[in-house]
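The records we work with from here on pair a chain with its fold. These numbers are not coordinates but entries in a learned vocabulary of local backbone shapes. To see the layout at work, look at the sequence and tokens printed below.

. . .
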Amino acid sequence: MSLPELAYILNTLDGLDIVDITGIKGVYDFTFTASPEEANELSVGPAPASRSTTPGTRESLQRLGLRLEKRKASVEVLVIDHLEKTPTEN
């Protein structure tokens, strides 16, 4: 997978907004070791937003030569504020 795809997976696991800013292109094979609890959370769905990155995740990223940095950044968000079941005439 690519690094943006890895960031998406980490978002699912940790409930954080992780953005790839490495600029590294390409597709890679990643191997992560997860505790039974972490593996169960991956199969159940996103973790609560209040949870932080697990030590196992940080260690796995460090072994790959990657690290997570806490930063403030702008991200694109799509907001749908209204939805009509049937279209109206113009």
Q: What stands out?
A: The chain is about 35% helix and 0% strand. Residues 83 and 89 are 15 Å apart (CA to CA). The radius of gyration is 17 Å. Residues 1-90 form one domain.
